[in-house]
Design a protein that fits this description.
outer membrane lipoprotein receptor (LolB), chain A; 12 strands; globular; about 25% helix; 3 helices; alpha+beta; about 210 residues; 12-stranded mixed sheet
């Protein structure tokens, strides 16, 4: 009888815990949606750092500027240490490496799971549908942790940081133990951005590689 009672208490506790967790995830997802939905356009300088969490060593540092127009359009320009441009016109994604004189073209991944820019440029409803969301707050800073629901993704966890309701940074962790931290500066929320910013014109003489088509 004691064993049955103990099992009943355990199951009840687990049920209550799972319900509370579901409510927490729902609340976190709703709050994240509340912050992202008004963000129609976005412009910012960024600093990007890739860290090997095993050896705590910095593998790569980069900086540049980004523009977003939701849903689906973005331009991500790396200016240092090597130039690189990633552009989405809402249908296709263009990756241009000027040093190699090479352009890779692939269809836009509607699952918004492959790059930070895709994540931010997607619909908030798609974001919360594809990820489990939790939230923690430190003063005016809100940190959202997103865990992919599908194994078909390039990272295992993503953190979005908002300071005073303004997107301030992203941090991604992948299965190899690498972390990519991106901090945004000189942020402009909902600026006017010419739509031509999201049209990529293939440079004359560049090699073109089409993927997934």
């Amino acid at each position: 009888m004691r064993m049955i009672k103990a099992v009943f208490v355990l199951l009840t506790a687990l049920l209550i815990s799972s319900v509370a967790r579901a409510e927490t995830e729902t609340g976190a997802a709703e709050r994240l949606t509340q912050l992202l939905e008004p963000l129609k356009t976005y412009s910012a300088d960024f600093d990007q750092r890739v860290v090997d969490s095993v050896n705590s060593g910095s593998l790569q540092n980069a900086k540049g500027h980004m523009w977003l127009s939701r849903p689906g359009k973005f331009r991500w320009e790396v200016s240092a240490p090597y130039r690189q441009t990633v552009v989405s016109d809402g249908q296709q994604v263009f990756l241009y490496d000027p040093d190699l004189e090479q352009v890779s073209i692939r269809p836009l991944d509607q699952r918004v799971t492959h790059t930070p820019a895709l994540l931010l440029s997607g619909q908030a409803s798609e974001l919360t549908a594809n990820y489990g969301v939790s939230r923690r707050q430190q003063g005016t800073t809100e940190i959202f942790t997103l865990s992919p629901k599908s194994p078909d993704t390039l990272f295992e966890e993503l953190e979005m940081t908002f300071n005073s309701e303004q997107l301030a940074g992203l941090e991604l962790s992948d299965s190899t133990g690498q972390r990519t931290a991106i901090n945004f500066r000189n942020v402009k929320n909902n600026p006017s951005i010419n739509n031509d910013r999201f049209n990529f014109h293939i440079p004359t003489g560049a090699d073109v590689i089409r993927e997934g088509q």
